[in-house]
Amino acid sequence: MKENVLVTGAAGFIGSHLIRELEKYNYNIVALDDLSGGYRINITDNCEFIEGSITDESLMSEIFEKYKFKYVYHLAAYAAEGLSHFIRKFNYENNLIGSINLINESVKHNVECFVFTSSIAVYGANQVPMTEEMTPLPEDPYGISDIIEFLLGCVFLVFLAVSVLLSIILFFKGNVQSKKSAAFLVLFCVVLFASYIPLHQLA
Q1: Which residue has the higher pLDDT, 73 or 189?
Q2: Which end of the chain is more exposed for a tag (fewer CB within 10 A), N or C?
Q3: 117: pLDDT confidence band, cut at 50, 70 and 90?
Q4: Which residues pair with 116 in a beta bridge?
Q5: On the CB side of 191, how many CA atoms lie within 13 Å of its CA?
Q6: Of 49, 165, 60, whose CA–CA distance to 107 is shortest?
């Protein structure tokens, strides 16, 4: 049985190339895009296309419940660095709230790996050559929203770490039922982190 993979922003330049790469690994790919910046023609016929926005909370809930994704590649964003000063509300709703919807559904449905793509906008200008070790210095709302999305992902990892710690405490100090629950949670977290490395190597 094929594993389900979600790619948001699938009709864009990077998203469409990612889909073609994932197709080599025989995944069942669900391509999501609202076509505000991408084109339907970019998406191959080998995946299932859903036209919609990550800001649509009910749609996100529906497709996560239906497909039980194993991996989520989040590329959807309204990339408007020069315009973001003038459309702050629109920028944060699309880039930040949309990402929150995806992270929430990924947590609720036990997604094994959530891959988030950021932007060089988080580093600001006049830092050349650019490397990932640089201190983020965003100069506009678009760059700020990218940093916040990254921090949300970090919070997700902290949540997992705390869950492991609590599980260990329950295992050694709790009753039999608590120990079973703790063992299951630790196993889930181990599988989640173990899947992180091969998925990034694949991408």
Answers
A1: 73
A2: N
A3: confident
A4: 74
A5: 11
A6: 60
What pLDDT, on a 0 to 100 scale, did the predictor assign at position 202? 33
Catalytic residue positions, numbered: 142
17 phi/psi in degrees, rounded to 5: -70, -35
- HSE, side-chain direction, 13 A CA sphere, residue 39: 3
- What span, in angstroms and rounded, lies between the C-alpha atoms of 157 and 152? 9
User: Taking all residues of the chain, what is their mean pLDDT, rounded to a whole number?
Assistant: 74
Burial of 98 (0-12, 13-18, 19+ CB in 10 A): buried
In angstroms and rounded to an integer, the radius of gyration of the C-alpha atoms of the chain is 18
**E strands in the chain:** 4-8, 28-33, 48-51, 71-74, 113-116
Cα 133 to Cα 112: distance, rounded to the nearest angstrom? 27
| Contact predicate 81/143, CB 8 Å | yes
- Alpha-carbon distance of 46 to 22, in angstroms, equals 11
- Residues 99, 109: contact at Cβ < 8 Å? no
Calculate mean pLDDT across residues 128-139.
Answer: 67
Average pLDDT of span 176-196 = 53
